[in-house]
Amino acid sequence: MYGWLLDHVKDEDRRVLLGKWSLCLAAPHIGGSFRDFCKETGRIRRTAERHLQSEFQRISSAIIKFPESLQEPDWSRVSPMMPNSAIDLDKVGTPVAKHDLHWLPGDAKPFHDADSPELAALIKRLEKANRKRARSRQAV
Q1: 13-29 confidence digits (pLDDT tens)
Q2: pTM (two decimals)
Q3: CB 59: neighbour CB atoms within 10 A?
């Protein structure tokens, strides 16, 4: 992390902000909250967040200028560092739909079954809640 941080963030104060923000986000039980960090160091949290946002924009524009840094890593070099990892990235697929109506096309129209027992139960619950709400408004 510190390689690109030193390359792309020139201001020491902004480096401290980025480092502490990432620690607070990744390990809040160790770093605490970013709000508390700002309070302890006498920073205004909103101003610190604006500084973070400007650094994120500056870093992203610098990274986009050099697209070779956006390439996928060489997994043959990464996998020896994680020998106990049981994930084979080639076998990862899309999740299976929960049921037939999980995904509907954009021109799909809702269907209405007036004889549905679920619809009747819903109507009863709504009417009961509306009566209860009306009684509570009258009492006030």
Answers
A1: 999 999 899 899 888 88
A2: 0.47
A3: 16
